[in-house]
Amino acid sequence: MTDFPTSFDREALLKCSRGELFGPGNAQLPAPPMLMMDRITDISGDGGEHGKGHVVAEYDINPDLWFFECHFPGNPIMPGCLGLDGLWQLTGFNLGWRGWKGRGYALGVGEVKLTGMVRPDRKMLKYHVTFTKAVQTRRLTMGVADGIVEADGEVIYQVKDMKVALSEA
């Protein structure tokens, strides 16, 4: 598939956020504090439930994370949209990992279920992204995937039909 490894530590993810991993103008992760993972433990272009690719990543939770202080004062909870953004980040990362060119853009999500919360006492989030479609044509580069976020082994977020595209324009 590519010459890239199938796992990435935090330093490699920071390299991606600086545009140094896939090259200028290509898939790029956000910089901290918006980088929503600490490591990618497994990635493929042909794995997962549908054989179309997958990503597994982890994010260490500690009480000092920036969002706990402001969301909500006295009742700290990680915003659910940050977990969704982490799933979108990983979907776009997978497209860049495949060697596909262009900058990543979230296009939407079909369904979102939030069934739990991330409070400061949680230890780790685990992301699972499973592609249902990965398309690269002359006019379109896009991934469609389902995702799950677990907090300390408990499923707390589920999404279906996330869409991320790469555009060279």
From TrEMBL:
Keyword Lipid metabolism: yes
Keyword Transmembrane: no
Location in the cell: Cytoplasm
Protein's GO biological process: fatty acid biosynthetic process
Pathway in which the depicted protein is active: Lipid metabolism; fatty acid biosynthesis
Cellular component, GO, one term: cytoplasm
Assigned protein family: Belongs to the thioester dehydratase family. FabA subfamily.
Assembly behavior: Homodimer.
Protein known as: 3-hydroxyacyl-[acyl-carrier-protein] dehydratase FabA
Provenance organism: Erythrobacter longus
